[in-house]
Amino acid sequence: MSRKTISIIAGLAGAVVAWVGTNAAQAACEPKLGHPPLMRKGSLIAAINPTVAPVQYVNDDGEIIGLDPDLGNAIAERLCLKMTFESVQFATMIPGLQDGRFDMINSFMFYTPERASQVIMIPYGASTLAAVVSKDNKDDIKDLSYFSGKKFAVELGTVDANDAKAANDALVAAGKPGIDVQAFKTYAEVLQTLSAGQVDGAFIGTEQAYYYLKQGQSFFRIAFSGFDPHAEALAFKDPALAEAVAGALNDMKKDGSFDKLFEPYHHCTLPGPYKVVTGPLPAPQCTNTP
């Protein structure tokens, strides 16, 4: 038998061993939950509203990607389940979960005691804001008081707008010039206004700020970030599923994969342990700095 023939046989044997090993590993991963509590055997179905890059959005190939899908996929892998995302309007998510249309909500949902009284919630991270200014602005900007007497853009009807208004009210109460807060429908419009030089600064999500910079939007810089964290949570109907997901999150936290997943998105993570929470939640304390 020639050396070439021996080499080919060895290569084929190695491929067979690798194939058997991979399939054995897959077979050994038994789903941690069945039907019920899952809506469908072997699957974890999550409601998501993929409209905010980079947290959750649809790419050019029609795939739902981003931080929330990454987290959902990691949880499903830990539970030996197939992850399935359903695009749902945000306002219909809690009623849909209550009606049994899906197993969980994985969609950048803020934690509130009111929501926690309707569904089971596990806080895990926090949304924060970044103040952005023109790249030509080299001033050392530490907080919103810098924008006293200046124009500042926000997205309409958001926490961002409330924070800017509160800062304006505090300045006026202190006898200082207020902030001219200007509201727009989307972050895209907010950034367009800043790019055109029509405002002196703006609020956008910390994750969005870093994402747009990475996409080449170099007309602005981040003055400060990680501002005003608001806890966000996964939501469930079934207690057994919630406890299983909490266990997966805590395992991820222990082995470092949880923080590693969030780090590229510059997203605040809560320290854990992760568990079902009801009632008022203390102000979120981030374990990482955006």
Brief characterization of the structure:
The protein is α/β, with parallel strands linked by helices and 290 residues long.
Structure characterization notes:
- The longest helix has 26 residues, at 3-28.
- This protein folds into 2 domains: 43-127 and 229-269, 3-Layer(aba) Sandwich (D-Maltodextrin-Binding Protein, domain 2), CATH 3.40.190.10; 129-228, Periplasmic binding protein-like II (D-Maltodextrin-Binding Protein, domain 2, 3-Layer(aba) Sandwich), CATH 3.40.190.10.
- 36% of the residues lie in helices and 26% in strands.
- It has helices spanning 3-28, 67-78, 93-98, 113-116, 159-173, 187-195, 206-214, 239-255, 257-262; strands at 43-48, 51-52, 56-58, 64-65, 82-87, 104-110, 120-134, 151-155, 180-184, 201-205, 220-236, 268-269.
- The strands form 2 sheets. Strands 1, 5, 6, 7, 8, 9, 10, 11 and 12 form a 9-stranded mixed β-sheet that branches.
- By secondary structure, it is α/β, with parallel strands linked by helices.
- The termini are far apart.
- The protein is elongated.
- The chain is built from 9 helices and 12 strands.
